[in-house]
Amino acid sequence: MTGELKTSISTITNPKIVSRDEWLIARRQLLAREKQLTRERDAIAAERRRLPCVKVDTAYAFDSSSGKKTLSDLFEGKSQLMVYHFMFGPDWQEGCPSCSFVMDHTDATLVHLAQRDVAFVAISRAPLAKIEPFKKRMGWRFNWVSSYHNDFNRDYGVSFTKEELARSDIYNFGTSGHPSEEAPGFSVFYKDRNDVFHTYSTYARGAETGMLTYNYLDLVPKGRDEGGLYFPMAWVRHQDRYEDGRLADAAKPYWPAEKASASKERESSSCCAGHV
To answer: Which DSSP helix (H) or strand (E) runs through 61?
Structure first.
């Protein structure tokens, strides 16, 4: 199907124009707040590292391009493993555009993560026969395995039944609902000898950690410019689909249903952004 493109065409109305000296005063005031935010972010990162961990006793078996892999195998000699929960359902024709947006920022980080003892893998419920051609189409190199034959996605809060979608407490540690049977997020694991421990997970807007484009957009005058969209990431397409907007899944199972919606609903209905 052809999806309507949401190219930014907004303008900045009545910009406040001041002298260079006045601008410098305003900039220094903002800089003080930015420094405060940096210090708070550092403090939260330290608190995150102090979280207790949970031993993983389930013997998950994942399908990979080189055969069956255990969760322990996915560390590939490292002691830390970052997992991206990529929304790609077993019946879908292609991966979620928003998750693809996240992954477009990933390959260049792999060599640097390895220097800090970190392995990376994406995990989806789609069978490997669907994952591999889509990965090739996108030109990605990161490790991507299938959890089609295990309960990993459900155990880590990113896959739901159709019946569960009616609830408002199925996602993000029971704090929200979700519009799709698949959900995004990051989970982190630590390996000590033969034992694997779950140390951290983040969902919803926590996935913005992997979206460098958003960091850039937050610096420009128009920002993310998503105010007029039915949900924040409705403008996103696969990297090779911005010209025609084409989406292979007519039902767009990765996104909330498009309808007239109040701002409160917009804030809570995005697959990767719009609620914390």
So the answer is: strand 61-64
